[in-house]
Amino acid sequence: MNQEPKKIERIFYTFQEAQEFLNISHDTIYKLMKQGLSSHKIGRKRVFLKEDLIQWIKEH
Q: Which GO molecular-function terms appear in the entry (predicted)?
């Protein structure tokens, strides 16, 4: 009867998590943002949609 809890899929990545996901440096992610990599601000934090990061990988 004990079921394992369902894992919730991550939708947003923090700035640092996005860097790790894309395996790029701090400076590079800023350059990509200037070139159009989509990000969103929630409070004082900048986050990236996982979908946007995957799309960027596919395009580059």
A: DNA binding
Q: Report the Cα 57 to chain-centroid distance in Å.
A: 11
Kindly state whether residue 6 falls inside one of the protein's structural domains: no
Radius of gyration over every alpha carbon of the chain, rounded to an integer in angstroms? 14
- Give the predicted TM-score (pTM) of the model: 0.76
Query: Domain residues for 43?
Result: 12-59
Work out the widest C-alpha separation in the chain, in whole angstroms. 51
Q: For 16-56, write each residue's pLDDT tens digit.
A: 999 999 999 999 999 999 999 999 999 999 999 999 999 98
Residue type at 40? H
CA 45 – CA 1 distance, rounded (Å): 40
